[in-house]
Amino acid sequence: MDHAKLDRMYQTIAQTVIEMIPEEWMKVYLYGEVMEGVQRTFFYYFPKASKEPVYFLDIIELFEVNEEEFEQLREQLNDHLKSLWKEFKQSGHEPWSTFMIVFDHTGKFNAEYGYKDLSDPATDFFERRLIWEYKYLGLIPKDDFARRILEEYLKDTEGKSD
Length: 162
Description:
five-stranded antiparallel β-sheet, 5 helices, alpha+beta
């Protein structure tokens, strides 16, 4: 695969996220899932003035942003991830199912791909998101139902390595 093209695709994803963030920020954690017919993407960012991450959909409630423009950027972000996924497929690489990119305000970034079968009925997107939020951001759900899911995951993974 052409590394220059891959770098440009990462840059486009990051630039779209940056356009969605209406304040100074330090670091972004983006997670996406892409499969035939299914796509989900979300991100958190750490504002410059806070140690608490902000969930991307909370931006609309926290700031006076144009919702229509925000939704257009959200669609563009989804399109960029789908293009990245298609690029892998078209270049003969195994298409990934999960993608994560972490980047900071200095331009440093790290991209990771996952290849788990997401059609497994034992886990759903809600559970995967809770686990991801805990593993990468240290977030513990406030709601009892979600907290029980996370506790069950932690109990099941005790002693196991990823």
